[in-house]
Amino acid sequence: MLLTLTTTHRPATDLGYLLVKHPDRVHSFSVPTGTAYVLYPENGADRCTAALLLDVDPQMLRAQKDAFELSQYVNDRPYAASSLLASAMARVFRTALRGASKDRPELAAVPIPLEIRVPVLRGTPDLVSRLFTPLGWTVTATPIPFEPEIGGDSRYVDLLLTGDIRLADALNHLYVLLPVLDDGKHYWVAPDEIEKLLRSGEGWLAAHPEKVLIARRYLAHRRSLATTALQLLEADQPVTEEEAELPVARRAPLAEQRRDAVLAALAEVNASRVLDLGCGPGALLSALLKDRSFTEIVGADVATRTLEMAARKLKLDRLPERQKDRIKLIQTALTYRDDRLRGFDAAVLMEVIEHVDLPRLPALEAAVFGHAQPGAVIVTTPNVEYNVHYEGLTGMRHSDHRFEWTRAEFAAWAERVAATYGYTVTIRGVGEDHETTGAPTQLALFTTEKKETKEVTA
């Protein structure tokens, strides 16, 4: 899928400074659903165009809820602008979305002539106009016709926006309205999506005549989330105590709370040499690398593509040698014994075990607890009892989860593993703790006598 940004501001090449992407290079970025490229098909003093091209990897997409059996294989996700493109924008234009520019701060703060084109976008010309015209854009939404032998127009338009708009505002308009027009998200919409909507809609969404439709579609038609977002948008009314207690406002996302809980557990056991098993694209590795108390860090994953994404996220090719010597990425299967994983202070399995088929879980236990034998093991996994609080969720939280355990099931598993392999275990919750269902994430800290926690030592 494709999006182009053009300006005729002179010198037009200043667009490269605003986007923090040099016009003479092709920039590539790994994203969870493929690869994003930024390039400049036009690069002159009078006119400059930046193109964002998202190459979607079909194997990294899950089947969408749709009306026919082949929707997993036959769908418009690779080419129609959607939340996939919005997420890629947030990844590659992060600084520009914030309105920051080290080299052209004065230009980032003022409107400039812009022309934005999205060649394939779901939506009717009427709806597109209702969404973008109030924001100061001149809208041209041309229906894309079917083949002549079929006749008529498809449900897609070729969108052209023109206007004098601040670049950060333009990008935030697109970030919100692309998934609104597509009327879908490629990921589970949690309460922290309200914060994204309010942040990106600051200065324009509260006064938008279609703000109700925008909130409902952006928040995947989850009524409670949309209601809360609309209440918080009421600029003339202060937030009431009741609204302030809603589980949406400015609270750290669960992923961040989970990461912090893992880091706290590592500090608790005085770990300096750490394994991140099933490291994925490197979210925890980034935090470990920032803490100099971790002198040796190994990220392990079965997927080489995922390790490549982690390497890019960590910018391993640009790290100083002293930093680079602290971290290593290795490809390995956690259900097989690997001597490279032996002898570490601690190992982390953060949201990993639920992706393993239950019949294969004993092999993981033997490989990690029995063969690698780290001094401590930290395991986090979803608490299925908490799922009732996720409105609209049916089944498990992720399509790749093989199981999700209750607190009793997780405790029984942890106690059996600890007894089998000579560990002691403590279990705690991560996230907001509900009196009936507990916390959304459960964490087990396994320790051995040779690696006692600070609390035990004291």
Automatic annotation (TrEMBL):
GO terms for molecular function: metal ion binding; RNA binding; small RNA 2'-O-methyltransferase activity. Its EC number is 2.1.1.386. It is an enzyme of class 2 (transferase). Residues 275-377 form the Methyltransferase type domain. Keywords: Magnesium, Metal-binding, Methyltransferase, RNA-binding, RNA-mediated gene silencing, S-adenosyl-L-methionine, Transferase. It comes from the Bacteria. GO terms for biological process: regulatory ncRNA-mediated gene silencing; RNA methylation. Residues 1-233 form the Hen1 N-terminal domain. It catalyses: small RNA 3'-end nucleotide + S-adenosyl-L-methionine = small RNA 3'-end 2'-O-methylnucleotide + S-adenosyl-L-homocysteine + H(+). The keyword Nucleotide-binding does not apply. CDD domains: AdoMet_MTases. Its cofactor is Mg(2+). Belongs to the methyltransferase superfamily. HEN1 family. NCBIfam families: bacter_Hen1. This is Small RNA 2'-O-methyltransferase.
